[in-house]
Amino acid sequence: MSCVATRFLDFGLYYLTLALPHNQQLHIKKVLKPLKKIIKTLRADFAIIFDRDPAARNWLEVLLCYPGLHAIWLYRFAHWLHLLNLPVIPRMISQFARFLTGIEIHPGAKIGKGAFIDHGMGVVIGETAIVGEYVLIYQGVTLGGTGKESGKRHPTLGDNVVIGAGAKVLGNIEIGSNSRIGAGSVVLKAVPPDCTVVGIPGRIVHRHGVKVSALDHFQVPDPEGDVIRSLIGRVEQLERNSEAHMLHPINSYIIDSELLKNVRPRHLTPSDHFEHSEEYEGFSEGAGI
Question: Which of 9, 50, 138, 220 has the most CB within a 10 Å radius?
Answer without folding.
Answer: 138
